[in-house]
Sequence to fold (144 residues):
Amino acid sequence: GGSTMAAEQQQIESLPPDVLQDVDQQVFKDAYCVTNSEAAFLLMQYMSVNKERHGPAWQPPAVVKKTKDYVDKFAQTRNEENMKRLREELANKGLKDFELALISNLMPETADEAMALIPTLKERFTEEQLTPVIDEMALLRDFQ
Fold:
């Protein structure tokens, strides 16, 4: 809708001017936020498909390997079912796509911490509404 476009435009405009001049505004138009767990899963699939296609000697580009190492380190879960459930639960609670990715990646321990880290949550949720969300996230996380 129009208000989403305005909000996205506002987010893009809040980038520092020196960064903004180098950014093609259309890049963010259809952007999709993913969690570290989802990124790790997608990169694992990409690497697996390429190994099958090109043989076991195939190596991913360095940037792909480094990104995969990073998201593996910070992934909340490696369980595909939990990953899907976490996204569904958070989306059903009314979190926006970017909030869902942020709260999943930051894994705050309290509603207060979540609202401090993601200020847009304060505008739409109370601490009482967010607490069960935080509790549910903790249940779906792999214990490291």
The domain at 33-144 is CATH 1.20.1250.40 (Growth Hormone; Chain: A;). The chain has two domains: 1-31, 33-144. The first helix runs from residue 2 to 13.
